[in-house]
Amino acid sequence: MSNGEEEKENSVVVEKVGGRSSITTCLSRYPLKFISPKKVGPSNIDAVWVYVLNYGGGIVSGDRILCKFSVGDACTMVLTTQGSTKVYKSVGSKCSHQILEARVGSNALLAIIPDPVTCFSTARYYQKQVFTLSSDSNLVIVDWITSGRHESGEKWDFDLYRSTNNIFFDDGQPLFLDTMLLEKDKFGLVKEHMLDYQVIAMIVLLGPKMQYIQNIVQDNVKRIMTEQLQNPSAALSNQKSKADFFMTKPTLVASCSVFGPKKIGLIVRVASVTTESVYKFLRHQLAPLEPMIGVPPYR
Amino acid sequence: MQTKEEKEEHRQPVFENSFLQWSQWQLLDSILPTGGFAHSFGLEAAVQSRIVSDSNDLKTFLIHVLENTGSLFLPFVYSTCTSPNMENWHNLDRILDATLTNEVGRKASISQGSALMRVASAVFSEMPSLKTMRDASLKLGTVTFHHAPIFGLTCGALGFDSTSSQRAYIFITMRDVISAATRLNLIGPLGAALLQHQVAPIAEVILEKWMNRDVEDACQTMPLLDTVQGCHGYLFSRLFSS
């Protein structure tokens, strides 16, 4: 079993070897394992894929996991999972920690495109991801959580979920500081804040190579949401569905914000009633990454 | 018996204090032109997306906004109120600019902060430090003038203690959300006053939970509201700028 006190360090270093992005260091320790399949995409695409696997399918109460990633100049690395990361019930109210530190070099791309985190009832989970970038690094982060094991009737029933994503330039200037805290306490249940929404997702697209995708995503989200929002003239022209339209909340809410100097970053926030609709959203919005990483994400 | 001189000595600080109170009330008065009423804190987007459709929803929404205000902004108010120097303020201004990832909320914070700094340095002229800091910051050109740190700075200058400053920040947020609700016709003027009074004890609990925290602990606790507020720019017709 894992020892709650010890921090287990895992690391992957990707550098150019013979002109191709290659793994030069790969260390993983129980309960984590990194797998890097050779043939994820076509051979003309220069990208290293790393799958993060958890023994036992998830994170046990009290686990402290530290991962360090370094993506060298002009390299591409994709980090993903093979299913949702489960955070099991907490034992003796012990919190599980997962810390990720990543350096992304000049003109390099790191894409973190995992499945969602699912916290079981009473789980306590703390996640912190810190990124250090050059001014022309590229970064994709998908960070998302579902409300729990729906088949067991659990909805937002965990005790604590705290997720931090901080992005700094290599001179130490903060570019993006974001912490989301969902905590059950005596004043209220997370369920009450979420209404009927079961999934909260965040997508960050950053850097010069992402500009094109940022523009597509912004247009898409604007179109999706304009249809969902109350539009007086549209409502009048469609009397039949008017009553329903005014009664129900959108099943998926999404919004985009640009951030950083020269608007180099885009964040998309999503709240949805179903996990599947977020997978569909991610598949659609991130499809333009295919030429850079070899295969379309979430297929 | 006190001598006449002793009485005078006692009266002096009381007099200063009473004058400060006029300024403190003025800071919290809605007549102070800081532009708070141009903002709905996401309420308009919440109404148009049917997240808020009646006065019950409004009360829930208001409490959630206050909770998020407590967790995200109070650390900034607390820090500048207790260390009202320019270096600390500029550092917090930069951190808050990176923390407000929602563009709608970020722009609202900048416009209200700039307005407050302009008004406060002109109106509270007995506190020359405000004007000195504003002039020096404008010259630098790198300061974004976010609202919460400037509010803390002003509170500190006007002699609010740190708890009252943080309570005042929750108070003006509540005032502005409720004002927006009346203009969106969700609630009448009397209902608005009732709501404000009903929510006050809850706001006090929120204050106790989030006050006196470090800036490193600032966090979002209402991701759904943040997502909805981000939709403000997609609204077909808008009364408010956020």
Architecture overview:
- The complex is a heterodimer of chains A (299) and B (242).
- Chain A is α/β, with parallel strands linked by helices.
- Helix content of chain A is 17%, strand content 42%.
- Chain A has helices at 190-194, 211-228, 232-237, 242-247, 275-286, 290-293; strands at 8-17, 20-27, 32-35, 48-54, 58-59, 64-71, 76-81, 85-87, 96-104, 109-112, 117-119, 124-133, 138-146, 160-169, 174-183, 199-206, 252-259, 265-272.
- Mean pLDDT of chain A is 90; it is low at 232-240.
- With 242 residues, chain B is mainly α.
- Chain B contains ten helices and no strands.
- The termini of chain B are far apart.
- The chains are: A alpha/beta (299), B mainly alpha (242).
- Chains A and B meet through strand 15, helix 1, helix 2, strand 17 and strand 18 of A and helix 2, helix 3, helix 4, helix 5 and helix 9 of B.
